[in-house]
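Design job #97: recover the sequence.
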């Protein structure tokens, strides 16, 4: 029996975690790949609980997916970090490999791959990295750091980053310096009036955090006519679906890539890293679409307060 066919475990960690769709994606991948003995769970783990959880891992584990708030706090707890994750300063994947006495933990970053691939679906085929583009990023956290790396791969090394507090972006600034990216940092108060002129816009904000920007876009359209967004918007949030920002962008005539596409592609890359087999994107995409549709139906039927 090969390692890929033997029973292995994987999980997504974060706090809170009940909302995560990672189990849907990874379980669909295991089914499509015939890995019937593999198991993937969602485990609620806080930053304080993370060291003990990692210490408890045994050889049956293949890997971990990490969401907030663990993508940066895990770094000091790992044995190795892959170069991209180290430069970005954010780990969303932990590979668990056999070692002497205890497993060896290696940190990786598949968020960058997910962002590049999701945007690529809207940009179309071709040598995208050779095209010089303007870009805007909403947010200054771990996903924003991955976004800077992704935008650099797409030919943009001077994006504008919109944040609520310019005094809390030290980590992002250091990550940008390691990447050789030179962003301009601006207060998010002006975002709605400026992002429509960018070729690529990525909102890395959590659900509903970009709603004020969406409201300002709508108000600007009402006051001054059509906003006419210039480029493609990727909103990494996918709940609700569409988000207020995505809906406002679409109404103005812009192109939107849903955050579920980034989620899909970063998960497919995680499957490859953990199992050694290419992630079955079509099967994973179908399972994700069904889960999102069911979630929308449940929300529509839920009683209103």
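Job complete. Output follows.
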């Amino acid at each position: 029996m090969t390692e890929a066919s033997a029973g292995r475990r994987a999980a997504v960690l974060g706090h809170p975690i009940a909302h995560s769709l990672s189990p849907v994606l990874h379980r669909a991948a295991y089914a499509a790949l015939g890995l019937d003995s593999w198991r993937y769970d969602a485990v609620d783990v806080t930053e304080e609980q993370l060291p003990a959880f990692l210490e408890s891992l045994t050889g049956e584990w293949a890997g971990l997916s990490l969401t907030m708030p663990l993508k940066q706090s895990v770094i000091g707890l790992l044995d190795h970090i892959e170069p991209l994750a180290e430069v970005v300063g954010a780990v969303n994947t932990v590979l668990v490999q056999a070692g002497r006495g205890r497993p060896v933990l290696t940190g990786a970053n598949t968020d960058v791959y997910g962002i590049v691939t999701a945007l690529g679906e809207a940009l179309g085929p071709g040598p995208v990295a050779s095209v010089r583009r303007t870009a805007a990023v909403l947010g200054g956290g771990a996903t924003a750091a991955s976004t800077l790396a992704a935008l650099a791969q797409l030919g943009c090394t001077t994006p504008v980053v919109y944040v609520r507090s310019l005094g809390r972006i030290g980590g992002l600034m250091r990550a940008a310096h390691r990447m050789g990216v030179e962003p301009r940092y601006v207060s998010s108060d002006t975002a709605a009036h400026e992002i429509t002129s960018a070729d690529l816009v990525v909102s890395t904000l959590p659900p509903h955090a970009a709603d004020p920007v969406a409201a300002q876009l709508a108000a600007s359209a009402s006051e001054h006519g059509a906003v006419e967004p210039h480029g493609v918007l990727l909103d990494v949030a996918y709940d609700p679906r569409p988000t207020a920002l995505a809906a406002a962008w679409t109404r103005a005539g812009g192109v939107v890539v849903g955050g579920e596409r980034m989620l899909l592609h970063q998960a497919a890359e995680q499957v490859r890293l953990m199992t050694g087999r290419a992630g079955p994107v079509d099967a994973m995409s179908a399972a994700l679409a069904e889960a999102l549709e069911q979630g929308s139906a449940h929300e529509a039927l839920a009683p209103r307060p």
